[in-house]
Amino acid sequence: MAIETYISQEKIESRIKELARQIDQDFGGEEVVVVGVLNGAFIFVADLIRQMKSPVYFDFIGASSYKGTESTGKITITKDIKVDIKGKNVVLVEDIVDTGLTISELNVLLKEREPKSIKLATLLHKPAKTAHPVSIDYLGFEIEDKFVIGYGLDFDGRYRELPYIGIYNG
Ligand code: 5GP
To answer: Separation of 99 CA from ligand 1 center, angstroms?
Structure first.
């Protein structure tokens, strides 16, 4: 088994600082509810909110998608947020946008709860696979169509703790 470094810890850290500055500027000191998508976004979101200066509320949402040939293109909510987002600024934070199904469905779901605004953030985006186009407001890195692990992302439940993004070569 070999793991090749794809995006270093240093690059991730400096990009997150830039994203946090961008978010702070956009909200101009207003409160922000940051909603992280479980499981993969837990490390990204923890680092992101600690770089932000905006007043932050935080919660996680859990979603699983079924993408086989039987797929209805829907996701199941495995854990909902407790915080009331009506009239609030929301930033929905994903680890990686692949087909776009998860983030687009969560976007629709949260919009129904009438937030003041909703913005989408993801650390990684694989444009090659987009099937559900979404407009991403805060993007860490656009990547090739490769299976990546680390920094919250797993392979079969493992490697989430790696401080960098790697490519798993079996
Ligand atoms: P989407 O709904 O955009 O197709 O898929 C998003 C989810 O698929 C991510 O939250 C993540 O759980 C998983 N995923 C997509 N690509 C990768 C990848 O390269 N590595 C890992 N570990 N998970 C991925």
So the answer is: 8
